[in-house]
Design goal:
Blueprint (H helix, E strand, L loop, with lengths): L2 E3 L6 E3 L1 E4 L9 H13 L4 E3 L15 H13 L6 E6 L21 H15 L4 E6 L26 H13 L3 E7 L3 H14 L6 E5 L11 H8 L2 E5 L27 H16 L4 H10 L4 E6 L4 H8 L8 H13 L5
Parallel strand pairs: 3-4, 3-10, 4-5, 5-6, 6-7, 7-8, 8-9, 9-10
Antiparallel strand pairs: 1-2
Helix pairs in contact: 1-9, 2-3, 7-10
């Protein structure tokens, strides 16, 4: 396993991390412990959760993923050996009803962030969080769930970024957090955070967590240069495009029917080419997709996520895989003809 700098934070993270968003929901605790043990044995040190996990989110299960992760860390005596990442749920999301979180008060202001951090610390059973992230901006942005940008005039109720950075800095100074990051952010948003941190002497972002896969390389269009030049590491989620890049869903119906919710004719065409390329070179399609994401110079860590031990065991086979130059060239050729298919 390779270990990489997380921005300029001083933290080192494994090149692959484990997302735990199914733990306590689709994945019961005993299976979650087996996944966590397997990941740690493979050299994974970054474990990523969120206050709203597991997904689908709901009042009956909210927070269980953090609780399971915390119990595993305590039972294995690993607190100083792992990087614990979690997130505050913001209001600007399209991932389901979250009115149960803090009484539907999910703004990124001082009071909400302090409460969210304290609640996560309690569930995780720790006195500090290594990487604390903002799950969504308050303003609407283009994300995995919202593919078109809609401009809205600034709402006076939006929390000023200065306030958000200020309270996060105070929590770092208090020893409750070590580093901060954003998720599902735009190029403008990241640069605004960085500019205010510099001009106002506030805490600097260490990372951004956005989607990245063979089917979703939008990060390269603007954020990649920011990540490289400004020292903000990408934690890439959904590297298998919710399983599409395994090639196992090609026979299912398309989105809107009874099939895979992300499968479209354009994506099917791209996946067929990527799967054929992998098999031509004797590669597992999942391993090829994971290794391609991991090799990007702006990538700090690629998040694996599995609903079963068998899935994770398969994904772990990608660790250390170096793709031949001809495979990378062929991947880029497929992308050029069908970029970021909708």
């Amino acid at each position: 396993m390779e270990y990489r700098d997380l921005g300029r934070s001083g933290l080192k993270v494994s090149a692959y991390g484990l997302g735990v968003m199914t733990f306590g929901g689709q994945t019961p605790e005993d299976d979650a412990f087996r996944q966590l043990d397997m990941a740690h044995d493979a050299g994974i040190t970054l474990f990523d959760s969120a206050e709203n996990y597991p997904t689908p989110t709901g009042p009956e299960t909210q927070g269980r993923s953090e609780e399971i992760l915390g119990r595993w860390i305590a039972s294995r005596g690993l607190r100083d050996k792992v990087v614990v990442a979690t997130k505050a749920a913001g209001p600007g999301n399209a991932a389901g009803d979250m009115t149960h979180i803090r009484g539907n008060q999910r703004c990124l202001d001082r009071g909400n962030i302090v409460q969210a951090v304290d609640d996560s610390l309690r569930r995780l059973g720790t006195d500090y969080i290594d990487l604390y992230q903002l799950h969504w901006p308050e303003r609407p942005v283009t994300t995995l769930w919202r593919s078109r940008y809609s401009y809205l005039p600034d709402d006076p109720k939006l929390t000023p970024i200065e306030e958000t950075l200020g309270v996060l800095g105070d929590l770092v100074a208090a020893g409750k957090l070590r580093a901060i990051g954003v998720c599902n952010e735009s190029a403008w948003g990241v640069m605004r955070y960085l500019a205010l941190a510099e001009s106002e002497g506030l805490l600097r972002l260490a990372s951004i967590q956005n989607g990245y896969s063979l089917l979703d390389r939008y990060f390269e269009l603007g954020l990649a240069e920011i990540a490289m030049r400004e020292g903000v590491g990408l934690i890439g989620y959904s590297p298998l495009a919710r399983g599409l890049l395994t090639g196992k869903h090609l026979d299912e119906g398309e989105a809107g029917s009874t099939g895979h919710p992300m499968l479209t004719s354009n994506k099917r065409a791209a996946v067929l080419e990527y799967v054929a390329l992998a098999r031509e070179h004797g590669l597992d399609p999942s391993h090829m997709a994971l290794a391609f994401a991991c090799r990007q110079p702006f990538m700090a860590s690629v998040l694996m996520a599995a609903s079963s031990v068998a899935q994770l065991e398969s994904n772990i086979g990608a660790i250390g895989l170096e793709l031949p130059k001809e495979v990378v060239k062929a991947i880029n050729a497929i992308h050029d003809l069908n970029p970021n298919p909708k």
